[in-house]
Amino acid sequence: MNIAENLKSILNDIPETTKLVAVSKTKPKDQIMEAYASGHRFFGENKAQELQEKWKELPADIEWHMIGHVQTNKVKLIAPFVSLVHAVDSLKLLSVLNKEGIKNMRIIPFLFQIHIAQEESKFGLSIDELYSILNSDEYSEFSNVKAAGLMGMATYTDDKGQIRSEFRFLKQFYDRLKKDFFADDEEFKEISMGMSGDYSIAIEEGGTIIRVGSSIFGSR
Ligand SMILES: *Cc1c(COP(=O)(O)O)cnc(C)c1O
């Protein structure tokens, strides 16, 4: 497994405008530094504590993405530095993020995680839940969080047609939301979808950020 080569072949494979978040969860710092040495700066983790530890010990110019579910009591660990929180799925979490944003005197960019998979276990908001958040008074008063788009995880399946239709659904929903709520908002522009097994489909369907772990760092 050559990390730099894996990265290069994925980067060659995707449009320049697509952001590749290298998912380094469970992987040691020396492997992250291999990717870093090859020029990569965008990394993703799914546990707040692990993310905080790696942020403290690794170069300051790394852009860190929180890609996993965030417990409200862990927000303070990542609020000072996180570049993008991918999986916001409640008003409660948003309210804590906003509070920590204020404390840290920064605006924390985030994506709403939308439930697009068939499995019930996956986290994420329904369309109705998201509309009720966006229409709430509480949401309109948040000063230190910034919606940057949507994130979704497809069903864990070999059925490429199924995956494609879930990604297509997310893109269509994004377009509708953009029109209804974010028409004049240039910062609401991202769709985070696609992992090692399905990032090509995600890009074809309009994804702007892909989150790739095992195809870069090997299996976990
Ligand atoms: C682990 C993880 C990924 C990366 O998965 P791979 O199949 O290893 O590419 C992407 N997104 C989320 C939310 C993850 O937890």
Keywords:
220 residues, binds pyridoxal-5'-phosphate, alpha/beta
Structural class: alpha/beta
Per the principal axes of the C-alpha atoms, what is the gross shape?
globular
Portion of residues in beta strands equals: 15-25%
Q: Give the low-pLDDT segments.
A: none
H/E element order: HEHEHEHEHEHHEHEHEH
Alpha-carbon distance between the two ends: 13 Å
Total DSSP E strands: 8
For the largest beta-sheet, the strand count, sense and barrel status come to: 8 strands, parallel
Provide the spatial order of strands within the biggest beta sheet.
7-6-5-4-3-2-1-8
Output the number of helix runs. 10
Q: What is the arithmetic mean of pLDDT? A: 97
Question: Could you characterize what this model shows?
Answer:
The chain is of the alpha/beta class. Helices cover 42% and strands 18% of the residues. It has 10 helices and 8 strands. The chain has helices at 3-13, 29-37, 48-57, 75-78, 91-103, 127-134, 137-141, 160-181, 199-204, 214-217, and strands spanning 19-23, 42-45, 63-66, 84-88, 108-114, 145-152, 190-192, 209-212. It has an 8-stranded parallel beta sheet with strand order 7-6-5-4-3-2-1-8. Strand 1, helix 2 (29-37) and strand 2 (42-45) form a beta-alpha-beta unit. The longest helix has 22 residues, at 160-181. The mean pLDDT is 97. Bound molecules: pyridoxal-5'-phosphate. Pyridoxal-5'-phosphate binds at residues 23, 25, 46, 67-68, 195-197, 211-215.
Quickly describe the structure.
The protein has 220 residues and is α/β, with parallel strands linked by helices. Helices cover 42% and strands 18% of the residues. The chain has helices at 3-13, 29-37, 48-57, 75-78, 91-103, 127-134, 137-141, 160-181, 199-204, 214-217; strands at 19-23, 42-45, 63-66, 84-88, 108-114, 145-152, 190-192, 209-212.
